[in-house]
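Good morning N.,

You mentioned wanting to compare the apo and holo forms, so I went ahead and generated the holo version with inosinic acid. This is what I fed in:
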Amino acid sequence: MHPDISSVLISEEEIRSRVSQLAREIEALYEGRELMAIGILKGSVPFLADLIRKISLPVSYDFMAVSSYGEATESSGIVRITYDITGDISGKEILIVEDIIDTGRTLSHLKAFLKAKGPASVRIATLLDKPDRRVVPISVDFTGFSIPDEFVVGYGLDYANRYRNLPYVGILKPEVFH
Ligand code: IMP
Ligand code: MG
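and this is what came out, ligand included:
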């Protein structure tokens, strides 16, 4: 285990098994249709890469990146889109793929933004959810794991852009935060 991690919350094997189950749920819901996954950079990359390879339907994918405005405007729920999808999504089945839902601000904004482009549907798949932290209500269609309010890293999740490459989800030692 990495020396900065105090404990493994979700092991590599647990992630692998849950990702396969999610793929079955997604196949059941989109049966006979084609879907487009939109990964939210950068945290969703390992989850998106593993998930799409378990889905036996036609899947295309693209990416978006967002950054939150400062604390002062955070309550408005406004997030800035720093990288947008490149193609037309009208009439498409869109699945937003995210690493973690915390307050819900990012995804509620993104969902509304994408819906305005006229897709057939916009749904959400998240690896992790911290339901206790929710500020903006949002319906999540596919959740990997609901977790307690702890700061976690690994499998895409970072602290100061580090630890994204850990194959498991772990809890950071408090001294790492300083
Ligand atoms: P929300 O808009 O508050 O739902 O923000 C979700 C974003 O917060 C995620 O995409 C992560 O970038 C970040 N985040 C929230 N909790 C954690 C955590 O425990 N570890 C790492 N990043 C987190
Ligand atoms: Mg993120």
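The mean pLDDT is 94.

Happy to go through it together on a call whenever suits you.

Best,
F.
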